[in-house]
Each structure stands twice: as structure tokens, then as C-alpha cells.
């Protein structure tokens, strides 16, 4: 079977990539684009380590054949990170001691970004639901849920500071 | 957030520290939240081959014909490796600290001892081609009887290359602890309380699966990017298996996506490095999630019998423990964990008569190995369930029962090491305080520093 | 149908290190010419935090700020030997090795500072903020940066140190089991509160109250991470986890996270944890290992709470709804 050319807007930049049939978005990001911040935990859509935003929605990139999303917009952890400093979600995870081994962190942060994009004022239940597809084996989740809620406050504060 | 109760042991705590004792930010957290922390899989090299394993579909079987030719016909498959390619095929991980015999083949020769055991290796240009190649290898099996129960295995026909279905500790079929005289104490006890406890295997389930990338260097050395928990243990075992000088190998790692003991075995590195040496190309061997779940060593299943001689006032005067660790098909770290389990008995209590037989038993299942709380976690489940059963039997507050028997500074443990730095009494008192559970004054005033009159070792 | 509540307790100890084969680890510390310090190790961080606590311990022993200490690990071409990250040994072994290396480096640092200041090295102290000065006279001092520059460019000396910690090999006496396997013991007590649904057999862990004695919390926030994460794993082990659900039968083994069950973020227990400290005489600033034990006391505490709630004593892990329902059936059969 022939390779195909797929065009994506990755973190705001237009990218073209030559991919073998069946290549997942995860492999396209990691192997083709060198964006290794998106982690591979299971290749089964069951751990959430590879979570990215696809046209603004959270998806597990290991479950998305990249040929099926030609012309789509993809955001990864690399795109979330500003040129200087950290994104408020990253600050919340950093200061809340919400990382241990760090392998689930990119996925957790992108799941949080997806949540806050559609729901700027999440309840604790909303936060739990947003990360319920993401496995963490170290923390016991408590610090991560707190970080999601703290992130919402930080994002909103940054937003109102910008508006003012 | 964290709470420290400084009212305990205040005289022993050094107060004037600047950095130690403060909650500075994690050195690695910024890398984690930006996705820039580099795990082993984040390095990649041009021309890298992917390694997939042909695995046993049988619990215990002779391997007849092994037909690898169909794999070589898959486009992209570069090479197949069998046991004939491994310079020193037989090893045991703990040979570095003198454990014998070499009971495990890197790749089996004429038989498999558990379902999922690796049989031969397919190296290919892509993971898909390697998987397809592995699928096409034809293995002829002749099934042999399999044993799954630890106590059955103790008396059934030996199935290993050499020796018995249990590890032999200096001439004994188990690791023994002998302290005092349990039989005499049982005869004088007010009550005998005896129960059986058991567990099934548990997977570490780190979010990052076990893996490595081995890269041949221009100077003839091999660099291995690995998520091992123990770089030198891996390096030394690899050199012995590959028959190369230690300094031909270089291990790079130190940043691991969770381990919990699951990444102390030496499984992926030797075979990936062998592939790299034989093809002169970088080789990546990463466990799939399914391999991590069923093939990587789990926490051992255990079966534990506890027999206690107990007095009406709550003193436990004798404890006999018979403990079986299900090592699975190969030894790996189980002989060590079994000794650790024996040393842990009879728990954090001062019991004057203790008898422990801890068996490290081989069965036809996935070899078990180290996991968080190695040799202790399941023992604690048994010990502390037993303490609850004793308290219930006597109609006693379970905290008070534990305080009566808790070890104190200066007591002698069953493995004949003197207790120092004890704090069991204080953690129980602290938990009582937290939960509003009131302890009578004689219990509230107990201390690990001294043994009050009326209780104590015989 | 009823939801039955119960409370259970468990108390445990846990050994720091396991050294039947002899247990060493090394550390090297050196100053760069810019007054930073590098610790070179071959030790592994699995998330437990050795990269952080090694730097804290080094900063403490050198008397310099934490953010001027960097950890370089792990590469066997450059890092000295470490046995590995297991047996709750890392903070204890590597911490002790780092202290030894840092003290040797500090001696050089202070002696060069003394030469530069033309005073006796014994009269000098570090301020922990990047300066060295005469004790009681903060004005008569020199920046660590300037000492590092002077050492290299003026005196031709390295500010460096070598450290090792070795717990010697312990042979076990075969007949009696006499041995010296560990360096110290940490302690924990957990009180678990559960609710058992007597119709479905499901258990909800409502609250875990934990008291941990860990010698010295080098970094209390990281210790707290281990406690909360470990207690979660304890709940998970107690109620859910198995690779062989019908052990010793090998069938029905899970292959992925949808079959291998663990509590999700919606299944958490309330946690109340307190740390108490009895410094170990042989630990770095008294620290003991904590990483492994945090899962241990929760498991039997939950088992005991389940018995307290519904009268069913499940003696095999994990304590599944099936086992509880079978136990309830047996109890009812007996009372009917």
C-alpha cells in the first residue's frame, strides 16, 4: 500500500507529512514531527497518556488514523507551552505537586486544556470526568484534580487581567 | 497538604536545617509539565529496527520444530534470532550477588515453562512487519503437565532444567527463622488462633511500559537507552549474557515513567543489544501494554498460614508462619524476596517464640519478581488481618492489642537483630489521635523508648 | 439492601534497604567555575524524587542554596556505581553518599575561601545563600562563585568530593535465619472507613487516616505525594488488582487498562495523613525509606474494615464483590 501525504496544522504551523497506511496521529506526532511530549502508554486508547486536542476536542492520538484527519488542527503539550514561562495549567500542575514520574502529565494537562476550552468554570465532578480516561499510577489523582480546579482559576484570572 | 506532628520524638529531631525538611519544588516538574522530560523512547535513530517476540501459547511444553522461514518472507523483516544466537544463554539475574543456579534461558532451547515465555525474536524495519513476522513463525509444541498450585508444586515432578520445584537455601527447602520454642509455647498458651491467607499476582502497571533502544556505536561499543530501575545491574548481566567486556556497554537512563519494582528485571536489554550487535543497526524493544500486563513479572502470589499462641491478656507468645511465594517458572528476584519475607516475620511485634518456613516455589506461570513492598506487602495483609482476628477473638480493642505486643527499642527480633529506632507505638497513638479514638492512660503513655512493667518479652 | 459501614486498623513497619549481597552507592560532587555544584550519579528517578532530594541533601551539607545544585544522572560512562532504585534504598544510600562527597568538597571550598580571606578556615561559616564569611562577621566574606573562580584559575585546585555508602553483605545463618538485612525501619498505621453494599458486594473506601513515621521528611511535599499515591495503590491492591482473577487458574488474565481494574479519579477516598519523625541514626539527616511501605497498611486496614462492616472475613486478595457476596451468603446460611 502506498504512503499518503497528510496536511495538519500542528500547534499553529502548517505541516505536511508522508505517512504509511494506518499510521496513528500519535506516531505522526512523535516519529514524523519529533513532538515527543505526547506519550505512548498503551497504544490501545486506554491510558490517556497520548491525549491531544483535535480541532479543539480531546482525543487519544493513538486511536486516530492520521489519514482520516487531513486538514485538521492539532494542539499538543509543546504548543500549549508559551515562549516565556508556563501556561497557567502548567503552573497549576507544577505548584500543586501534581506530577511524580511525569509520564501521564502531558495527557492530563491536554485533557485539562480541552475541559477549560468548553467549560471555564468546572466543578470537581467536571474535573474528575475530564481526566477519567487518563491513568496515573503514582499520585492517587487527588493532587491532579486539585490542579485542574486551580488551573481553571488561573486561566480565568489571566483572562480577566487581559480583558482589563 | 502535608502535615508533620513534631510533638513525637521532639528531643531527637534536629531543628536547624535549611534545605532538608523544606518542600522545594521537584527538580523534574518543569520538564514534566512542558512535556520536555526525556524518557528512553524519546530518542530515535535513523535505520532503527523494531523487535517483537514470538511467545509461548502453552503453559509447559516441549518445542519440536521451530519454523522461522515464513517470518523471513514478510517484507521488512530483517532477521530472526533464536537461542543459538545468544552467546551465554543461561543466566539468573542475582548471579551478581552469588545466587545459583543459572535457571533461566534468554531464549528457550527445547521447552517452554510458562504461557507467554519468549521463544524467538523477529527484527524488522517497522513494528507492524515485526509483529506480522512473529505471527507467522510456526512452533510445534508437545504439551507437558503443568503445575499451578504452590503446595502441589512442592511435591510434584521437578520441571526445571535442574533441581527441585523450590529454591534450596543452604541445604534447606525453605528460608527458616527459628527463635525460641513455638511448640512449647503453644502448649502453654490460653488460645491457639490459626488462619490461612492468600493473594493472586499483581501487575505494576507503570504508565510507561518496559523497553529500551540499543544503538551500536562507531567505536564498537553499544549504548542502551533504557528505563531500567538499576543501570549497573542491567549492564553487568548484559555483559555476562553477551560475552563481551563490561566496558563495551554503556547504559543511559535514570528517567522512568513509573517502575514500582517492575523494571528491575533484565529482560529487554540483552536481547535488544544482541540484535543491534548482529545487525549493526539500532534496535528498539518496547513491551506492548498486553506484554506488560501478562508477560512482565508481577508481584508474586503468596499463600501464608499463621498459627498464634495467645494469652487472655492479649500477649502473643508464639507465632508460626508457613509462607509460600509463587515464583512462577524462573527465579529472578524471588529467592531474595522470600528471605525478605522471612525476615519481616512476625511483624513489628515482640513475640518470644517464632518459627518461620518461607518457601520460594516454582510453578508454570509468569515468573514473578520485585514489586513495591517486595516480600512484605502480602505478609502485612496476612499479619494485620491475623491481628484483627486475634483482637476480635479476645474481644479487645485492635489498637490496644497491637500496643501490648508492639516492639520497643532494645527488644530482640526473631532474626536476632536488636530493635532500634522503633516507632510503632507512636504511629498507632498518632492514628488514634487523628481519628478521635481514645486510648486508656496506660496505652496513651506507652513509648517505643521503654518497655513498661507487666508487658514484655518472656 | 443496605450499605454497611465499618472501620479497620492496621499497623506496619518497613525495612530501609535489603543488603544480602552488600549494598553500595556512590556519588561525586564538584563545583563548576561559576559556583554551581554538580552531583554525578547513576541513580534512577521513577517519580519518587531522587533528583530533588539528592540536591536538597547536597545543598544542606555544602551550605549553599538548593538552586545552585544540579543532579546529573544516569549514564554509566560518567556516573559512579549505584545498585539501583528498589528496596526503599535510594534516599538512604544515595543521600549518605552525597553527604560524604559534599563534605569533602566543602572542606576544599572552605580552605580556599580561608586563603582568599586570609583567615583560619575553622572560623568560616556558609550562610546558605551563596556566601562564606567569618563567623559573627557577615561583612568579612566572599561569594561561593568567587571561591570557585579562585580555586580553578588562581590555585589550581578542584572543589570536589567523593562519596560512598556501603551496607556490608549480611550472610544468613541457615539454621536460625539470623541476619542483618536492613538499615532501619519506618512505620505506619492506617485507619480505614468503608461502606459495603450487601446487595452488590461492592466496597467504597470512604476515608483513610494515615500516620507515618519516616525518620526525616527530606521534602515533606514529596513524602506526602508518596503517602497519598501509596494509599491509593493500597486501596487498588485491596479491592481490584489481579493478573489472574481465578488464581491459581491462569485464565481470564487482563491485557489492558479496561480489564485490569484500578480506582479512577472518581473513586477516591478522603485522606488525612500525618508524618511523625524519629530520625534514623544511620540515615541522611535521619531519613528512612518511605516509597514502598505506603501501600502496605491500607490493605489490611480495608480488609479489617470490611469485616467490621459486614462480618465477612476475606482472606484472599483482592477482596472482590464476588468474594464478599459469597461470604454474606455463607453467613446468612448459618443464621437462617
TrEMBL record, chain A:
Presence of keyword Iron: yes
CDD domains listed in its UniProt record: fer2
Keyword Oxidoreductase included in the entry's annotation: yes
PROSITE patterns: 2FE2S_FER_1, 2FE2S_FER_2
Gene Ontology molecular function: any one: oxidoreductase activity
InterPro entries from the UniProt entry: 2Fe-2S-bd (IPR002888), 2Fe-2S-bd_dom_sf (IPR036884), 2Fe-2S_ferredoxin-like_sf (IPR036010), 2Fe-2S_ferredoxin-type (IPR001041), 2Fe2S_fd_BS (IPR006058), Beta-grasp_dom_sf (IPR012675), Diverse_Oxidoreductases (IPR051452)
Keyword field: 2Fe-2S, Iron, Iron-sulfur, Metal-binding, Oxidoreductase
SUPFAM superfamilies, per database record: 2Fe-2S ferredoxin-like, CO dehydrogenase ISP C-domain like
Every 2Fe-2S ferredoxin-type domain range: 4-80
Protein name, per record: (2Fe-2S)-binding protein
Automatic annotation (TrEMBL), chain B:
Pfam families: Ald_Xan_dh_C, MoCoBD_1
Listed Basic and acidic residues bias regions: 449-458
Keyword Oxidoreductase: yes
GO molecular function: iron ion binding; oxidoreductase activity
Keyword terms, alphabetized: Molybdenum, Oxidoreductase
Record-annotated Aldehyde oxidase/xanthine dehydrogenase a/b hammerhead domain positions: 34-145
Matching Gene3D superfamilies: Aldehyde oxidase/xanthine dehydrogenase, a/b hammerhead, Aldehyde oxidase/xanthine dehydrogenase, molybdopterin binding domain
Region (Disordered) location: 438-458
Keyword Oxidoreductase applies: yes
InterPro entries referenced in this protein's UniProt entry, alphabetically: Ald_Oxase/Xan_DH_a/b, Ald_Oxase/Xan_DH_a/b_sf, Ald_Oxase/xanthine_DH-like, AldOxase/xan_DH_MoCoBD1, AldOxase/xan_DH_Mopterin-bd_sf
Protein's UniProt name: Xanthine dehydrogenase family protein molybdopterin-binding subunit
Organism field: Allomesorhizobium camelthorni
Lineage summary: Bacteria, Pseudomonadati, Pseudomonadota, Alphaproteobacteria, Hyphomicrobiales
UniProtKB/TrEMBL annotation, chain C:
One example GO MF annotation: oxidoreductase activity
Pfam families tied to this protein: MoCoBD_2
Alphabetical list of InterPro entries matching this protein: AldOxase/xan_DH_MoCoBD2, AldOxase/xan_DH_Mopterin-bd_sf, N-heterocyclic_Hydroxylase
Lineage: Bacteria, Pseudomonadati, Pseudomonadota, Alphaproteobacteria, Hyphomicrobiales
Domain Aldehyde oxidase/xanthine dehydrogenase second molybdopterin binding: from-to ranges: 4-263
Protein name: Xanthine dehydrogenase family protein molybdopterin-binding subunit
UniProt-listed Gene3D superfamilies: Aldehyde oxidase/xanthine dehydrogenase, molybdopterin binding domain (3.30.365.10)
